Amino acid sequence: MDTPHDDNKQYTYKDYCTWDDDKRWELIEGTPYLMAPAPNQAHQSISMVLSRQFSNMLYGKHCKVFAAPFDVRLNSETTDDTIVQPDLIVVCDESKLNGTCCVGAPDLIVEILSPSTARYDRTLKFDLYLKHGVREYWIVDPDTKTVSVHVLKDGDYITRAFTDADAIPVHVLEGCKVNMNEVFEA
Q: Which end of the chain is more exposed for a tag (fewer CB within 10 A), N or C?
């Protein structure tokens, strides 16, 4: 199969693996979503700085950071019809890493907004990550230089807003903070 084309079909990871059209897709509860074209310079700069900061914090520790494109199969144990490619993930349970992707919810997901993905990241993905038990979800907005941090507590997200002047504590990584001034100055 070249690309998903049947609007009435519910696709799975097995189908997803056959799509060979050089485009990036995400699969949300069986529905394919074509990912936006390559991100802009600001998005990529923020991604690189965050990747570096997380990588430095995690050096020598059991948690690992991965940058897009890297598949996350959120429900592989059931319908296996939800595969996302967040901008960054942190995985502390190495049994979730199978050599090709993350199987199950990462401990932390970071999405960096772009005009074409902002609504999708704030609504559909927010609900999806909550449903699948992502312990911490960051939404980074390059335009306003703000970060919404959502921490899972008692089945719901507790949300806190940060700016470029803040050092954000990483709840899933005790004692770790991300200096947002460095991130947004890139």
A: N
